[in-house]
Specification:
Blueprint lengths: L2 H4 L7 H30 L2 H29 L1 H24 L4 H10 L6 H13 L3 H31 L4 H18 L25 H30 L6 H20 L7 H14 L10 H12 L2 H15 L5 H30 L1 H4 L1 H16 L1 H4 L9 H6 L9
Length: about 425
């Protein structure tokens, strides 16, 4: 890893919370696709599988901003531990309901409970900010977290799909729950690097939601469509691999999708840009949309893997630039909430994309399913162009050199 990245870990405690963050974020890429694989193996119903994955994402979208707001007020340890326990109990219930063939409604209730899982990416970034705020190292730290997220998306689907297909159907989601428990409880045990809580006070900058910012509204709306791309690609790729007679290979193909993003993120994190990030962001959205079109033309897994790797090259730079825009358009006291709202938009999009793709697959097959991310990409571009003026005008007092030099680096966890 380049020396600017290695130098981050000179700060006391940084290795510990970074490692905990890696473990705790693995479920981000494992749980949804693990549930899809598990349910499709046990029932053969991709529509149900996609709907359950969508339920998890929608629940996280509804609960995530509330958890982040409570973390800001009361601290990570006091909020993350009970939230994680609730998610773990719900995960156990989902696995039992699937294994023992309980009624479908029990699956959906448990899937909704999993939405209380906290956004570990935002928590780790908050710790980096507490260590390096106002320094060039924060720029590098955010870049590093982008790469970590993509590493999770490279290895998470491989592990989750691989275990569920080679061992037993519930194995992928089960391991995801174990990673969540280890990551969160390890992170919250590290008190020295935990950011100080700051209870909200009445005032012009603290009242109301961060979502009132016009620029943030554009970002969230665009990332609903972007999330639909991600959710649809995951579900359709599993189904396409099964149609090709190699369902387990879906994990490798999806890993290459994330590898493309990871590679671009490493390089992008070493660059310094001048000028407003809104133009780079819009270009990234367009690139993501165009990269979906070749998926309609692929006829085998090899070509699909190549197409997805190339499509992944536009993801991390776009997500990183998004975080720069959030810092321009959201008051600093609401920055964590602002990042969570973008993650919420992604989660809603993943829910819609995975659900719609599941029904399209059931009705017309996997090849037709790739039309879903193509349409979602077109919607993202349309919203991006319509809202570009809002993004090109930072909120009063939010633009400036600090943002330009250290904030272009975060990415999709989102959640």
């Amino acid at each position: 890893m380049p020396s600017p990245y290695r130098a981050l870990f000179a700060a006391p405690g940084s290795k510990g919370f970074a490692a905990a963050g890696l473990l705790g974020r693995m479920p981000l890429s494992m749980m949804g696709i693990g549930v899809v694989t598990m349910i499709s193996q046990l029932t053969g119903r991709y529509g149900l599988a996609g709907a359950l994955s969508a339920t998890i994402a929608l629940s996280a979208a509804a609960i995530g901003p509330q958890i982040s707001r409570l973390v800001d007020q009361h601290g990570q340890r006091r909020v993350l531990r009970p939230a994680t326990l609730a998610a773990l109990v719900a995960s156990a219930g989902l696995l039992l309901a699937a294994h023992f063939e309980w009624p479908d409604w029990t699956l959906f209730v448990c899937a909704a409970g999993i939405g209380s899982v906290p956004s570990l990416g935002a928590m780790i970034r908050a710790r980096w900010a507490a260590v390096y705020r106002g320094t060039p190292q924060l720029h590098t730290a955010y870049s590093f977290e982008s790469v970590v997220d993509e590493v999770c998306f490279i290895f998470g689907p491989i592990i989750s799909i691989g275990l569920s297909t080679a061992w037993f159907p519930e194995a992928g989601p089960l391991l995801a729950a174990c990673f969540l428990a280890l990551g969160v409880f390890s992170l919250t045990a590290q008190r020295a690097t935990e950011p100080e809580p700051h209870p909200r006070v009445r005032g012009a900058d603290s009242g109301g939601s961060a979502l009132r910012a016009a620029g943030l509204q554009v970002l969230v709306a665009t990332f609903v469509a972007t999330g639909a791309i991600f959710g649809a690609v995951d579900v359709v790729t599993v189904a396409f691999a099964e149609e090709q007679g190699h369902k387990g290979a879906a994990s490798v193909v999806l890993a290459l999708y994330a590898a493309g993003s990871c590679s671009a993120g490493v390089v992008f994190g070493l660059l310094r840009f001048r000028g407003a990030p809104a133009r780079r962001w819009l270009l990234g959205i367009c690139a993501m949309a165009v990269s979906m079109i070749p998926l309609l033309l692929v006829g085998n897994l090899t070509l699909l893997a190549v197409a997805l790797f190339l499509a992944g090259l536009s993801i991390a730079p776009t997500m990183i630039t998004t975080m720069s825009l959030i810092e321009e358009h959201v008051p600093r006291a609401k920055l964590t909430e602002g990042m969570t709202w973008v993650s919420t938009g992604l989660a809603v999009g993943v829910a819609l994309g995975s659900s719609v793709a599941g029904w399209v697959i059931d009705a017309a097959g996997a090849r037709a399913g790739y039309g879903v991310p193509v349409v979602a990409g077109a919607v993202a571009v349309a919203v991006g162009f319509l809202g570009y003026r809002r993004l090109s005008r930072p909120a009063p007092g939010r633009g400036g050199t600090v943002v330009e030099h250290h904030s272009e680096r975060e990415e999709r966890h989102v959640a």
